[in-house]
Amino acid sequence: MELLDRPTAAYVLDRMIAEAARYGRRLCLVRLRMPEGHVPAAAERLRFAVRDADVLVRWTEEDLLAVLPETDLLGAEVAAERLRDTLGDIPLHAGAVEWQGDTGDILIRRANAAAVHP
Fold first, then answer.
1. Cα 118 to Cα 105: distance, rounded to the nearest angstrom
2. Which has the closest alpha carbon to 65: 15, 110, 20?
3. pLDDT score for 29
4. Backbone angles phi, psi at 98, to 5 degrees
5. For the domain 6-114, what is the CATH code?
6. How far is Cα 4 from Cα 24, in angstroms, rounded to an integer?
7. I need a surface site. Which of 24, 54, 80, 99 has the fewest CB within 10 A?
8. CA 38, CA 102: separation in Å to the nearest integer?
């Protein structure tokens, strides 16, 4: 799985939201916040811990996003725990949210608020 950069990810997230809206599908977002410098190693390990349909994004120097299509909030919370377990030695805070008709920006802000800040 390829790790998407922020501009590409914003476009992909908007497309996934449009599909969710059009076809009545579920969509969740998990935000993974970690200390600066850990994102590259974390991304490499997480590439193998997400489903083929999921999208992994390097959002900032401290954040990765996992976009989870066809996933409800409970499934996203389970996925967040699985991702956290995969990165057991990296300090990590995660927040999971379900799309509720939001724009991509609002969905990301909600995921940010759901993540517990260190």
1. 22
2. 110
3. 97
4. -105, 140
5. 3.30.70.270
6. 25
7. 24
8. 29
Q: How many Cα atoms occupy the beta-carbon half-sphere of 87 within 13 Å?
A: 28
Give dist(CA 64, CA 12) in Å, integer: 15
Q: How far apart (Å, rounded) are the C-alpha atoms in residues 70 and 88?
A: 26
Per-position DSSP letters for 23-64, written without gaps between them: HT--EEEEEEE--TT-HHHHHHHHTTTS-TT-EEEE-SSSEE
pLDDT digits (tens, 9 = 90+) for 11-31: 999 999 999 999 999 999 999
Q: Write out the two tokens for 95.
A: 């927040």
User: Rounded to 10 degrees, what is the CA torsion of 72, 98, 23, 56?
Assistant: -90
Cα distances from 65 to residues 22, 50, 61, in angstroms, run 23, 11, 12
pLDDT grade, residue 32 (50/70/90)? very high
Nearest to 68 by CA among 32, 34, 33: 32
pLDDT in tens, 73-82: 999 999 999 9
